[in-house]
Amino acid sequence: MLTFVCRRLLSTIPVMLFIALFVFSLLYLAPGDPAALIAGDQASQTEIDAIRVTLGLDQPFYIRFVGWLGHALRGDLGVSIFSQLPVTTLIGQRLEPTLSLMLLTVIISVCIAVPMGVLAAANQGRWIDRIVMAVAVFGFSVPVFVVGYLLSWVFAIRLDLLPVQGYTPLAEGFAPFLANLILPAIALSCVYIALIARITRTSMIDVLSQDYIRTARAKGLGQGPVLFIHALKNASVPIVTVIGIGIALLIGGAVVTETVFAIPGVGRLVVDAILRRDYPVIQGVVLLFSVAYVLINLAIDLLYTVLDPRVRY
Amino acid sequence: MKLHLLAASLLAASVAFAGAASAESVLRIKPSGDVKALDPMLGSDSMARNYGYMIYDTLFALDADLKIQPQMVEKWTTSDDGKTYSFTLREGLKFSDGAPVTSKDVISSLKRWSVNDSLGQQMMAKGATFAEVDVHTFTLSLSKPWGLVLDALGKAGAPVPFIMPARVADATPPTTPVTDYTGSGPFMFLAKEWVPGAKLAFARNPNYTPRAEPASGLAGGKVAKMDRVEWVIIPDQQTALDALSKREIDINEDVSADLIPLAKEAKGVTVAKQDDIGVAQQIRLNTIQPPFNNLKLREALLYAVNGDDFLAAVISDPSLGKACKSFYTCSSPYHTEAGFPSPDLEKAKKMVAESGYDGTPAVLLDATENTNIHAFVTVADQLLQEIGIKTKVEAMDWATVTSRRASKEPVDAGGWSIFISGPGGLDFLEPVGHLGLRSNCEKAWFGWPCDADIEAMRASFADLTNLDERKALAEKIQLRALETVPYIPIATQYQIRTYRDDLSGLLTPPAPVYWNVERK
After folding, report:
1. In this complex, which of B196, B243, B248 lies closest to A80 when CB atoms are compared?
2. Positive or negative: CA dihedral A195, A201, A207, A210
3. CA-wise closest residue to A257 among A115, A98, A109, A119
4. I want to staple A54 with a disulfide (CB 3.0 to 4.6 A). Which of B2, B95, B106, B175 is the partner?
5. How far are the Cα atoms of A73, B85, B170, B365 from residue B119, in angstroms, in the given order?
6. Higher pLDDT, B215 or A256
C-alpha cells in the first residue's frame, strides 16, 4: 500500500511539470497584454513598453518559464502582476471560501442524492423512480446561475431570510458562515445531486439483482437493512468514483456560483486573472487545481480498498 | 418546524452580525470596477484614479463648475513673465502616518507623475524645474510661459498628480506600483484587509486637515464623515442590485443600462447620474492601414454615423446619453458643433463609391464581455456593410483588444481597422489633453493619425489664457480634424449610479468620491 501511495505521488511530478509547461505555453501564445491593462486606455505604446520591461514580459519564453519553474520548485509561485502580492497569499485568502463551498456542496449532495438513488432503484419502474429521474434530469439541465438567481430571489429577496451575497469566515461564527453559504451550496449541488443519484440508482439496480440480496431477503431481513447495509456498500465503488470525478465539475461550477453570490473564492480569482492576463496567478491556481485533482483521485483509489476488500494495491 | 427554527436562527445571526458591525459608521460601495494596481500614477486606469482620490490629496482640484481651485496649496503667485510659479502649502498638512507634508514630498510626487502623464510630459518639455524654497514653499520654473500649469496640477483625468511621501515617490520607478500606501488624503487604505478582486477597506485619516470651504466637486473641504468605507467587488450586476435593495451595500457606482428600470422600482433606492461629463464613446480608426488609410472612407463614416442609432442599441432612456456632434464632450466649455455634418446615409454610400475603395475588409475588434462595446460593434458592422464597406468582426476579450490594437500590421497580418472605446470624458474636454485629437503620428493614440496643423494648434492652445481665444482655437482644431478624421465620435454616455436614499452629501464630480457623505 505504502509503495502504491509513494509511486502515485511520484507519478504526479511529471504530470505537474507537463501541466505547468502546457499552461505556460498557452498563456504565452494567448493574445493580451497585462502591461496595457495596467497602463490604462489612454496610455501610449511607449508607456506600455516601459511597464512590460519592468514586469519582465519582454523576456523570451524559455527564460520566463525556467525562472518561474525554479521559484515554483522552492514553493514560490511568484507575485501577481497587478496587486504585487505573492500568489500563495492570494490563493490563501481565497481558499477558505472555495473549500467551504465545495465541502458543503458535497455534504448536501451526498445526503440527498444517495438516498434518492437508493429509493429509485428499490422502486424501479414505479412513480417514485420516475420522479427521482425527472428531478435528476432537471438538475442536469438547469444552469447553476439560473438556480442561484431563483434561490436568491425566493430566500433572500422575497422571504428576506438570507443574505444575497458575500462570505463570512467561519472564525466569525458558524451561523453567519452558514447563512452566506447555504444558497450557493444548494445551487451548486443541483448538478451534483443529479449525477450521484443517477449513478447510485444504476449501481444499486445492478447489485439488487445479485443472488446474495435474494438470500438476505429470504432469511427475513427488512428492506432498510437490505438496501443500506448489504446493497449500498457493494454498490458504492462507482458512486465514490463519481463523487471524486465530480469534484472537477464542482470546480467549474464554483466559478459561476462565486460570481452570482459574490463569494471571494479561488474561482473568481482565476477568472479575474485570466481576464487580466495575470500569468503568475493563473499558473498558481491551475497548479493548485491539478494537485487537488490528483490527490482526490488518489484518496478515492485508497478508499476502494476499504469499500471492496478484493481491491489490493 | 425544524426548517423554521433553522431559518430563524440564521436570521438572528445575520441581525446580530449586522448589529455588531454597526458600532462604527460604514459606507459599503460596489465600485464600477476593480483596482488593477494600487498606484494612481502608474497609468490612466480610472479605478486606480478613484482609489487615489480616497487616500491622496492634490495641489489643485476641479470644483463643481470644473474650475481649478487650490486644494493643498494655500497661495500661489506667477511671475510677470509667466515663467515662474511659487506655491505655498497649507499649514498643518500631514500624511496618514503623521509625518508633515513638505515641499520635498510635493516635488518628488510631481516628478514621478510627470513621467506617465501627457500634460506632465508637456510641462517638463517646457523646461520645467522645481526648487524647494522652504518646508512649505517651492517654485516651478519654465523656459517659456505655458498656460496650462494649473490645469495640469488640478487635472482629474488619470493619472492625477497626487501627493505621496518623497520616500515612496523617489524609491519607486514610475513603471512599478508603489507598495507603501501612506497617503495625504481624507481616508487611509487598510492594506491588511485588502483582498484583491474582492474587497478594499479604508478608514478615516485622523491626520488629515480638510479645507474650511464646503466640498465642491473634487475641491473644497474633504470631510470624511464615515468612519470606514468598504469597496465590495460584486461581479454580477443583478446581485449588486439585490444587495443594494437589501441594504447589504449603500452605493452601486455603475448600473448596467438594462437594470435601470428595475433599480427605479426598488424601494429606498435612488437612481442618478454619476456626473455630467460621462464617457466619450467613439469609433477609433486605424489611419495607417487599408481600408481607413483612405481619407475619403473616413469622411464617409462621418456622414454614416448617427450617435442616436448607437445609443438606442444600449439604452432606452434618452437622458442616459447624448449624441453631441463634436470632438469635445457635451459638457466641455469648448464644445462646438461647427463643421460637423448631419447624418446622411445616401451621401455616405456615394462617398464610399467614389473613394476608390479596393474591397479590403474592415476588421472590427469586438470585446464581447463588454455589453456596450459589443452592441456598438454590432451597429457599426451593419452600418459599414450598408454603405458598401466589407467587414470582418473578430470576437475577443478586452485584454486581447488592448494588445491587438497596438499592431500596425495590415488587416490580413493580424492588424485591425476599428475598435470601439469609451474613455472618460475628462480627457476630451480641451484640445491639449485630448486623447483622440492627438495627431502626432507614432506618438498618437492607437490609429496613429498624423497632422502637423492640428499638433501646431494644440501646442499654441496652451499659450492662450483668454477663454474666447481658446474657444476660437478649439473650433479651428475641430474644423481641421473634420478634414483629417482621426476618429468618429459616437456619443457621450453617462455613468448611472444607484444608492440608498438615507445617504446625503453625495458629490457629483467626474470621479466618484466619498468624503462629505453621511447617513441621514
Report:
1. B196
2. negative
3. A98
4. B175
5. 46, 17, 20, 29
6. B215
Phi, psi of A54 (to 5 degrees): -60, -40
Residues of B in contact with A53 (CB under 8 A): 175
Contact (CB<8Å) B402/A83? no
**Prediction ipTM score:** 0.84
Q: Which of A65, A59, A53 is nearest to A24 (CA)?
A: A65
Per DSSP, B442 falls in state G
- Nearby residues of B418 by Cβ (< 8 Å), 6 or more positions away: B283, B284, B285, B286, B292, B362, B363, B364, B365, B377, B380
User: Does residue B423 have a cis bond before it (omega within 30 degrees)?
Assistant: no
Residue B492 φ then ψ, to 5°: -95, 130
CA distance A158 to chain B (A): 10
Looking at every residue in chain A, the average pLDDT score rounds to 89
Please name the residues between 137 and 156 in chain A that touch chain B, using a CB distance below 8 Å. 149, 152-153, 156
Q: Which residues contact A107 (CB under 8 A, 6 or more apart)?
A: none
Residue with cell 498638512: B93
| Residue B466: how many other CB atoms lie within 10 Å | 9
The reply to whether residue B246 touches residue A260, judged by beta carbons under 8 angstroms, is no
- DSSP H or E segment with residue A279: helix A279-307
Would you call A222 exposed, middle or buried from its count of C-beta atoms within 10 A (0-12, 13-18, 19+)?
exposed
Angle at the Cα of A72 from the Cα atoms of A67 and A74, rounded to 5 degrees: 105
Quick check: A31 and B396 CB within 8 A? yes
pLDDT tens column, B447-495? 999 999 999 999 899 888 788 999 999 999 999 999 999 999 999 999 9
Give contacts of B14 with chain A, Cβ < 8 Å: 162-163, 175-176, 179
Residues 243-282 of A with CB under 8 A from B: 259-262, 264, 268-269, 272, 275-277
Range B213-225 burial, b when 16+ CB lie within 10 A, else e: eebbbbbbebbbb
Q: What is the dihedral of CA B145, B146, B147, B148, to 10 degrees?
A: -150
Q: Which of A84, A118, A109 minimizes the C-alpha distance to A230?
A: A118
DSSP letter at B355? T
Nearest CB among A54, A82, A159 relative to B176 is that of A54
Cα-based torsion angle of the residue sequence A155, A156, A158, A159 in order, rounded to the nearest 10 degrees: 60
- Comparing alpha-carbon positions, the chain A residue that sits nearest to B242 is A164
Adjacency order of strands within the sheet including B496-500:
B187-189, B199-204, B228-232, B26-30, B251-252, B496-500, B269-273
- Whose grid coordinates read 490527490? A295
Q: How does pLDDT run across B190-246, given as a tens digit for each residue?
A: 999 999 999 999 999 999 999 999 999 999 999 999 999 999 999 999 999 999 999
Residue B371, pLDDT above cutoff 90:
no
Structural domains present in chain A: 16-73 (no CATH), 95-307 (1.10.3720.10)
Quote the pLDDT of residue B13. Answer: 47
Question: Confidence class of residue B12 from pLDDT cuts 50, 70 and 90?
Answer: very low
What is the pLDDT confidence band of residue A101, given thresholds at 50, 70 and 90?
very high
pTM for the structure as a whole: 0.86
The amino acid occupying position A297 is: N
Contacts of A179 in chain B (CB under 8 A): 10, 13-14
DSSP A135-186: HHHHHHHS-HHHHHHHHIIIIIIIS--S-SS----GGG-HHHHHHHHHHHHH
User: Cell numbers of B423, please?
Assistant: 474613455
Q: How far does A178 lie from chain B, in Å, by closest CA?
A: 8
Summarize pLDDT for B123-156 with one digit per residue, the tens: 998 999 999 999 999 999 999 888 899 999 999 9
pLDDT at site A253 = 85
